[in-house]
Every structure is written in structure tokens, then in C-alpha cells.
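quick one, two chains, predict together pls
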Amino acid sequence: MVKSCKASLDPSVCEMLEKARNTGVETVWDRYEAMLPQCGFGETGLCCRHCLQGPCRIDPFGGEPSKGICGATADVFVARGLDRAIAAGAAGHSGHARHLAHTLKKTAEGLARDYTIKDRGKLRAVAERHGIPVENRSDDEIALDLAQAALSDFNEKETPVTWAANILTEKRVKVLSEQGLLPKGIDYEIADIMHRTLYGTDADPMTLIQAGLRTAMADLAGSYIGTDISDILFGTPQPVVTEANLGVLKADAVNVAVHGHNPVLSDVIVGVAQEMAAEARAAGASGINVVGICCTGNEVMMRHGIPACTHSVSQEMALITGAVDAVVVDYQCIMPSLATVAECMGTKLITTTDVARIPGAIHINFREETAGENAREIIRIAIENFVRRQGTPVNIPARKSRVVAGFSVEAIVNALAKLNPEDPLQVLIDQFVSGNIRGVCLFAGCNNVKVPQDQNFVAVARRLLKENVLVVATGCGAGALMRHDFMDPSKVDELCGDGLKAVLTAIGEANGLGGPLPPTLHMGSCVDNSRAVALTVAIADRLGVDIDKLPVVASAAEAVSEKAVAIGSYAVAVGIPTHVGVMMPVVGGPEVTRVLTDKVRDMTGGYFIVETDPDAAAEKLLAAIDERRAGLGLRVPGGARR
Amino acid sequence: MNTERKEIFVRYERCVGCHSCELACAVSHTANRNLAGALLRGERPQKYLWVEQFDGVKTPSVCRQCEDAPCVVACPTGAMHRRADGINICNIQECIGCWMCALACPFGAIGRGEGKALKCDRECLNEEGIPACVGACPTDALVYLTVEEFQALRRREAAASVIR
């Protein structure tokens, strides 16, 4: 029987949640219930703890107190809070990027023998974009320069961050420069936020917002570095067929779930798992089954077709099956509660980085120099656990969805080139003009416990696909859509409007797939939102217009992480209308709310759409698309110029 | 006498001064009973209870809904009246803003809204029949019980503290 529940739209999650409740294992939904009601001052961003005179709370309805003890207004409170969230998000993405830059450097220096340059073409393309000579130079020489260039983008320089200034349309760089939104250095901007949000520093909501958007651009730079170097070291994704949901776990195999964000460890684990299959068989297992959770899962799915187990808010549910032998985590979005769930369910939780230690976990200090060795040690722990769990029943919900993933920009352009080898992007542009593609929507971000899991993603995407909007997805937004069959090409008929159906079919058939592309194109992990920016920039450049003229929108329908705040903010900074499907802790500041949802258009052309009702959100996204179609002189469905 | 009637009782020792009750009270008097929605629509509801501090002790004070209410007795126009269910409320149409109710109230539970008396009306109950302020209290400093239930609770707490 298909289970349903209030917690999630995913029947597999509901089935495991019932098991968790029956066995008394506490989950994220239990902790959320216990947390209710949540504090309204925090919800609206009107609680400030930036100094030791606080905490201060401002009456959201305009009564007293109307200012903090220091005199800061509601708008200052929320702008400072927003800035710190963006800075934290940028620190996360750029910490990830720095990790990759160091790995590339060590690889080039011959210090990390488990890594190689997998995509020499991309190494050269990225190097050339950043003015690094490639003629008559070895991979290692180029890679070393590139790693240095990436690392030097972290500190303040005379020139702006190159991964911000070199990746956008010329017009966008000019806009950002004029508005003071080009970052000087990634770390510099994060530190600048910490400075200006310090007690008694910046008290102007507008300069606070400006600094926030500039730091969000630093976040884009970090993300872009992350994607570039991951592709260089591990290969640029190409379409790959795989599966998603808890049904990808195998009762008779050693199940290793890789969770977190970074491919530096997980990519090595995928390789080592194949080498060690015989060892697993000798222990009585059918093999080693590596599965993904969250964005580490997306990284290895995109490049190796590793199936996805589950995502974001349901991460504990993977362990509730009792079938996961080891969950190996790097950093970000890893609930500390996994330690307890792992202990209850007989799973080994293995932490691998110093920035993300969890009491109760086994810690294996992962280093690039000893990557293979570390990965083998991890797999051995999983095999031992498999032996120990024999005789213990497991419950694996059978459901799984077919997924076609791997749509890097390079893969998309390759696919389009089959229809027009000279000018691949013209294929998309023709379809925009004809109206077969009404616009593009990027789904990004997390699953938030406040929303029944996947509900907003599924509702908004369903509506937009019917309206012929081309849907691309990253992160746990991609995870939500893949677990509901939105990446299964056989669902195009059911999900897509006629125009979009025709386009996806034509591209699929030209590429010898014997059918359409999937309804939703999986572009990767959350750092890979950079790919969505790159695709948008390529289309804008081809048309000779700036990003803020394109019928391109984004939706973080169930956002959680401060990284999602940073991503949403850089989407707005590059000129994209961006939906957020949960309340942001800025609504307590009336002027800041007005700026972010409206006035910021005058600065960047982008703006936030805060809408918790998914049906209303879909309408607003369509309206934003149509407004831009009209601006480009393109036909708007229904004929109305908005 | 209605012994089933519940009152909002305060356990002062549990109040952390978070003001969540005040906020929940105000939100319960908005169109959709939703904080963010009310803010985005520009609604400006008022709260009908107050958290203050006296000698380092945080003290939520809420209308006692007195059974023989001084505010009702003092009102010259009959605006302040006792509803059939025993809840004392103000009929805004008849209120002349003379503030006799505020003068008479021993608890300071009368608020001012556009020249008229505003006070706790208990029109804030959730689907379980719990007042918004009580439902919002994260530490159970506010409880919604009959006098008998509350006294029993206090006796248990006192006994527990002696035994421990």
C-alpha cells in the first residue's frame, strides 16, 4: 500500500517515518513539533543578538519597543541578519571551493596521487577564461596556475574577484560595478559583512543590502570555482541513466551512503568501492552499493550515475531502513541527529573533515594525500558492519524513480549541437521565440520541515511544465523532483505542455535517445547553480541582451540553509526574479522587504518573490516570465502584454 | 457558579520574558491569524497582555476576566459588559473613551485603541480551545486551567519541592 502522511509527499519517506515512530526513533518532524510554536521575533528577523546588551526584540506591529537598545531600527535588524546569513552561505560554498582548489594544487604538484586531471578540455577552457596561458604547457603547469588564481580570488586585490568579473555578460559586469556589487575578494566580503554588522557599525539598511548582494556575488564566485574545479578533476557531467529513492538500497549488499556536498572524497569512494567489490563478496555481500544523499549524492550521480537514496529533510529516513552500513559525510546539511539515528539503526556514521565533527561518529581524518587509503578504510568499516547486521531485518521501501541526470552546460550544448552544429544555442532561442519554450525556471535549494516535503517543488514545477516552461534543477530541489518522476523521460507526455514536449522530443531524438529528454534537466549540486548562471549568460550573450531581460526565473521553494539565502541573493544580483517558498526572517523590516521584493529591480533587474502558497507562486513566476517575454517583444500566451 | 470555567494562570517562576505571548495575542487578532501575512498586508493589531519586569522578575500580566469585574461596574455607558459566557468585553460603538475601566482595573489590563478601550476578549482560541498567549508560551509559564486544576497543580509542585 502506498503510504501518505503530512510530513512528506514521498510515500517511501512516510513508510519509514511510520517505522521510526513505531520503534521510538526521534526524527526531524518530532523535533519540529516539540519546537512549536516558534518565536515570532525570530521568524520576522526582529530579534538581535549581535551585542551583549541584547537580546533585543522589536514589536513587528510598530508598537514599542520600536528600536534596539543601541537605537537600531527594525530594518537594520533584518538587513544585518540577512547579511550574516549570506556571509555564512558564502563561507560554506567558498570553503567547498577552497577545498577543491587545494586538491587541484596538490594534484598538479604530484602530492595527491589518487587524483588526476579528468577533463583536460575544461582545464584549458577555464584557464583561458582567466587569462592563464595554455599553449605548449602541461596539464600540471596550467592546473597549478589555475589553482593559484582561484585561491587568490579569496583575498582582497586591486581587481575584482575574477570568478565574478569573468563569468557574466559584459553588461552585467557593468551594472554590478556601477551598483558597487562586484566583490573585491571572497573572504574579504565575508569579513566585511562581519565588520559592518558588528555592534555600532553600519546602520543604513540600503548599504547593508548592497553589501549583502556583493557578498552573494562572492558566493557565486565560490560556487563557480567549485563547479569548474570539480569538472576538471572528476569530469564534466554527461547524461547518465540512474535511479532515485530509498528503493536503491539493497538488502544483500554493503550499502554506503555518501552525504554532504563535496566530490573530493565521494568520487574516490566510488572508485575504491568498485575495486573492493571482491572483498565485500568474500564477506557474503552481493557487492558494494554506493548511494547518495543531498549534494554529495548529486555530485556522484551527475558524474557516475550513482543512485540517490533520499534528500535533505528525509536524510534520517535512509538510516531508518536499517540497511545502510555506513553513512559517510563531508560537510553542510548533515543533521547532528544522524549520530543518534545511526546508533539506533546499526549504521556507522563516519565524519571525514575537521570542520564537521559529530559526537558519536567515527572520525576518519580525510586528506587528499591519502585519499585512496582513507576511502578503503571507510569501505572496510562498512563491510564489517554488513557482516554484523546479518540476521537483522531491514525495511527498504520498494519505490524508486527512473532518473536521467548529468545536464552540465557542456552536455546541454552538445545535445543542442545535434540539431544545429554551428550555433547550438540558436535552437533554444528559436523555441523561445516560437513560444514552444515560454521561459526557464531553475529549482534550487532544500526541503524545509515547515513544508510537507517536496509539496512546493512538485506543485510549482507541475504547473510551469504544463505552461511550457523549461525546468532545470539543482541540489535538493533536483532531489525532490527526481523522486517524483520529473526526471523520467517517459513522464514528458504526462507532465509537459505540447510546446515543451515537442522541444524535448526533438532534442532527445536528434541525440539518438529514441524519445524525449527528461521533463526536468538535472544540472547538479547546489554549488552547480553556477551552471544555471553559465547557461543563462550563454543565452544572454547569444542574444546580445543582459540577463535581466531574459524570461528566466528561479525558485527556492522549500529553502533551509543560509547557502540558499546566498544563492537566492546572487540570483537577484545577476537579474533573476527569484521565488522563496518559505517566510524569510526579513519580513519584520518593512523597508527592507520592499527593497528586496521590488526596489532592488532598479539596481539589478532581479527581485525576490516571497510566496508560501505554491499555486500563487507558480502564477507569479509565470507573470515574471511573461513580463520579460513582452519586454523582448515575444508573444505572450493569452496575448496580454503585462 | 461555573466550575468548568478555565482561567489564564501565570507561573511567574517559569517566564523567560520572550514576549511570545504578546506577539501571539496580537497575531490572533489579525485577519488570517498569521504573523508574516499580517506584516506583508500592513495590518497593525494590538496585544492585550503585557510582559513586564519587576525587581528582576518577569511578570506577564493578562486580564483576569474577573467574575465581578470592576471595569464593568465602573463603565458609565454599558460598553464594558459581561458576555453570556462570562467574558468581559468592550462594545466599541458604545465606548466614549472615559477610561473609567482603566482607572478601576486593579491589573492594568486595559489598552487604548483609537480612543476606545481595548482588552482581552478571548476571541483568540485555537482549534483546541486554548488562548493564543497560552499556546505560544514556550515554557508553560501561562497555563489555561480551571481554578481547581491550577490549585491541584500548585499543590503537586509544592509537594514535589518539599519531597525533593
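Chain A has a mean pLDDT of 97.
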